[in-house]
Amino acid sequence: MISKAKSLIADHMVDPSSVQYRRLRIIHQTIQGTSMTIACGDYNAKNRAGGYTGFDTFAYEPTVLKGVLSMDDDQHFNFFGMEGADEAAVYENADTTGLIYAACLGLKK
After folding, report:
1. Rounded Cα gap, residues 39 and 57, in angstroms
2. Labelling 85: which of 11, 20, 60, 62 has CA 20 to 30 A away?
3. Coil, strand or helix: which one is 12?
């Protein structure tokens, strides 16, 4: 599961080989009555200028989220979807999406 998250993240980076990871873990959480297994961690990658951008926390959930959700320091979300993922649905279901991400941050509802 962590390898799939890493693959989705790297596939969306300018320099996939530059991606660094830390605090990788699997958590089990019940969110809005649904039991979920979520891969969590932080990633950092080089930008077009060749500099590292800083670590961002990510959450990967393959059944509901169907991809990786991360947030940068400016509180902008990034979504890296699996094939067939509906990015609009991720934002339309903000309550569930937010709870999945919050679980990786260690926050409780």
Report:
1. 11
2. 20
3. coil
Q: Looking at residues 63-82, what average pLDDT do you find? A: 88
CA distances from 47 to 7, 58, 92, 96 (A): 17, 18, 29, 30
Q: How many Cβ atoms from other residues are within 10 Å of residue 5's Cβ? A: 25
User: In the structure encoding, which two tokens stand for residue 18, read together?
Assistant: 């530059």
Question: Token pair 């993240």 is at which residue?
Answer: 9
> What does the pLDDT look like over 4-55, one tens digit per residue?
999 999 999 999 999 999 999 999 999 999 999 999 999 999 999 999 999 9
Residues facing 29 on adjacent strands? 36
State the pairing for strand pair 34-44/67-71: unpaired
| 3-state class (DSSP) for residue 92 | helix
Regarding predicted confidence, which is higher, 89 or 62?
62
Report the chain's C-alpha Rg in angstroms: 13
* In contact, 65 and 82? CB cutoff 8 Å: no
| Helix/strand/coil for 73 | coil
